[in-house]
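Pasting two entries for a bug report.
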Amino acid sequence: MSEAYITRIAKFLPNQSVSNEEMEEYLGFINGKPSKSKAIVLRNNGIKNRYYALTKDGVATHTNAEMAALAVKGLFKSRPEDIKKIDLLSCATSSPDQLMPSHGVMVHGYLPETSSVEVVSPSGVCCAGMHAFKYAYMSVKIGDKKKAVSCASERLSPVLRSEQFEDEIQQLIKLEQNPYIAFDKDFLRWMLSDGAGAFLVENAPNKEGISLKIEWIEGCSYANEEEACMYMGADKLEDGTLKSYKDFTLEAVLEKSIFSIKQDVKLLGEKIVKLGFSKLKNILHDKGVSMDDVTYFLPHLSSYFFEKKIDDFFTENGIPIPKEKWYTNLVSVGNVGAASIYMMLEEVFNSGALKKGEKILLAVPESSRFSYMFCLLTVC
């Protein structure tokens, strides 16, 4: 089999960054009043800035597919002619612009410079970006493709606007006592961000500069054991099953805000760290990898609230990672869902700090029904 390498990484962030103080100017006020829980939620998640593909009036400035295409074009900024050589486009998102056609072909539609290539659209939430990456990696690995692009993008700001929500839940005492209770619809308003990232995966490293050899990508799902935790376009019933938007009347869809994002906060607190990172411990053991071998650890965090919990888990399980090895840009770009891991790796890759032989461990937990993806890269 061929080897596979990430040779270029690019990102696209729409418009200017939005500070914590400006958020409600873009997302609006529920019932015309400022949020009373916003400050508490932001204190827990630690985010200072994020990006929205809309104006303060709620007018879209970019589609999801357009942002993904702009990230892809960014891969070829120095050599525009190379975009014609792409032989695979693997595109992921949890927030497509439409149900049909697929997100991937819509991205391809914004790339008239390319040829008629294979296009795939992995679905999911945060792990979807890694699934798109793995498809590109495997296609190059088996020799089927030579120049594969994977990308991930999100445009969730329209569903975070105030008109999409029911009356805001005001439970400040509970929020202070138990931060998990904030991880509901209101929490998600202050966390999510828009943007896109892209990888170029090839069968040979760059002749000049660095590349990232893809050592392995491993994933797992606990959906056979756990009910849904985060969902959209459905309502959660008392027995834990989801009732699809297709099975509601139009009136009920609006009344129950079926298309807002919701989270089962109790499940999130109990499960998100221990399930996935127990699996990572087993993967590292099976692959013969020690945390001592890792130079950079890039975890996708929905909130800095989970940073200590992950750190504590590693320490308690005998696989500690010193904090100086951790890297995340959550504070400056927010949670961009499936695209977050692309944006973190882009900053590290283009920082000028990487040295050949260093290893980078990626970790992407997804709370929707408890899925996880992990990847080890070597700088070469």
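Entry 2 (this is the one that rendered wrong in the viewer):
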Amino acid sequence: MLVDLWPLYALTVTTPRLQLRLPREEEIAALAELAGGGVHRPGERPFMSPWTVGSPADRARTVLRDHWQYLATWDVAEWRLGLGVFREGTPIGLVTLHGWDFPVIRQVSTWSWLGVAHHGQGYGTEARAGLLTLAFDHLGATAALTGAFQDNHASLGVSRKLGYEPDGISVDARDGQAVVSDRLRLTVERWRERPHPPATVGGLDACRALFGL
């Protein structure tokens, strides 16, 4: 069976309203169509990559390509775990956990998107908390990093709600202009001292070697 060859398909993170797991082929197609329908309001630009600027078909194909690339290039030295966010079996978004030299440095970064119809309902906070539960409480991460443009108030609000603290700024070129992002950092100590939505993790034991553990 596929799960025997690629045990990440058995990995699940369950929160009160959501389940995070690696999507199967028909589910990643549904997620791609969801992204094609929009992941932010018109006129916004919350991501450094211009993947949301094109047509609905362009956005959908980007989701497919990224999903396949993450699977094909998985390596202990650097990996990206892209988990579908499901609400009562329906895909509503995608969250990604990125690790590099993880057995040594024990740091991760995260990024995510939700279909625009699912914004403003606390799903982003709950999904990020589930991802961080996996990272801190089960993989042994010591810090999680993230960043957002200074006008991306929704993303920054989720990070601050979960206890991230300022970690400087980044200045990057976007469309020929300099843009500033706030960098944020959450340590395992701060994670454990602050309240966050509960989450349970299943199927990790068979996956540990893939993370270098």
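Dev reply: Rendering is fixed now. As a check, the viewer should reflect this: The two ends are 23 Å apart (CA to CA).
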